[in-house]
Amino acid sequence: MGTDLISSLEQVRQLQIKPGRAFHSAQHEEIANGATTDIYFIRTYEILKKLAKVDVPVTAEIFPRRGGVICGVEEVMGLLKDKKVSVWGLPEGSTFEARETVLRIQGPYSEFGIFETTILGMLASASGWANAAREIKEAAGDHPFFSFGARHVHPAVAPVMERAAVVGGAAGASCILGAKLAGQEPQGTVPHAMFIILGDTVEGARAYHELMPADAKRTILIDTFKDEAEEALRVAEALGPALAGVRLDTPGERGGVTPHLVKEVRHRLDLAGYKHVQIFVSGGLTPERIPPLIEAGADAFGVGSYISAAAPIDMTMDLKEVDGRPVAKRGRLPGITPNPKLVKLK
């Protein structure tokens, strides 16, 4: 399939899915040619074209149903890159209030109308994830957190989610493509699987230290086999000054990572002279759980499901001008909605 715009019902009828297609996610060219839009925008395009109205100049504005952090603007601009439109929007990562205009598009309806579904989807999902990350950031303060949520979403959108988390305040991400899209290197050490296969936490820690490059941070999981405080001391004794941190990821079946557990591990490490070893916590973290863990001695966090499960921020696109005339559907105010926070993007 090429990138020719799908703009008629006949093109929709001719669209065929190749037998044996491996993945159900949209390819880039399918997004660009309108295959991911709703059918009613194709019907609208066809009707307006037959009435010689499809090229009428319009102004469209997008607003959210609730406040949050804007994300996805970069993708929207990628979609509109070659379109004959002018665009104003909030800078990526900035905050907005409910019903505030976050994006304004001016130009012939034919240039962008078909992509209303696509544009709203790009903004809604990414802004929801970025907003959840901002909530974690506010709870963690100066303590860094990393996005570990790729396993909770479809792999086609995992990089979008991880990048959105970085926009929202995450110090990094574990998903390779997500981190690269955010201009970073992916963060993470090894899973429990390595220690289970090797059969011992210290053996795994030594192997990691010996075989991984010098710039790979030596942060070791310590909840696989033995008591976490015991394993923390064993690993610290084995790696000494090279050990940067220990990671607590105690499963919910054993009560999860509690402030008391963090406090004990911190105390025993300090008592044994390993004050340089930081404590990294992951596993079902929420903004409410983080402050008590920091007070107990946690230094950094890995957050997955709270970010990945965030609800999209519902976005609406309204036409506010048609051929220079203020207009709006019932219940909305006709004409451009002033917002001095918008910047010219195109």
Give the full name of the CATH homologous superfamily of the largest domain: Aldolase class I
Global outline: elongated
Major sheet details: 6 strands, antiparallel
Averaged pLDDT, please? 95
Q: How large is the radius of gyration?
A: 25 Å
Classified by CATH, the class of the largest domain is: Alpha Beta
Q: Give me the oligomer status.
A: single chain
Strand content: 15-25%
Q: State the helicity in percent bands.
A: 25-40%
Contiguous low-pLDDT stretches (5 residues minimum) are none
Number of strands: 14
What characteristics describe this protein?
346 residues, alpha/beta, nicotinate phosphoribosyltransferase, TIM Barrel, 2 domains, 6-stranded antiparallel sheet, 6-stranded parallel sheet, 14 helices, 38% helix, elongated
Question: Can you characterise this structure?
Answer:
- There is one protein chain.
- The protein has a six-stranded antiparallel β-sheet.
- The protein has 14 helices and 14 strands.
- By secondary structure, it is an alpha/beta fold.
- α4 (73-80) runs antiparallel to α6 and α12 packs parallel to α13 (290-296).
- It has two domains: 9-127 and 312-344, nicotinate phosphoribosyltransferase (Alpha-Beta Barrel), CATH 3.20.140; 131-308, Aldolase class I (TIM Barrel, Alpha-Beta Barrel), CATH 3.20.20.
- β6, α7 (158-168) and β7 form a beta-alpha-beta unit.
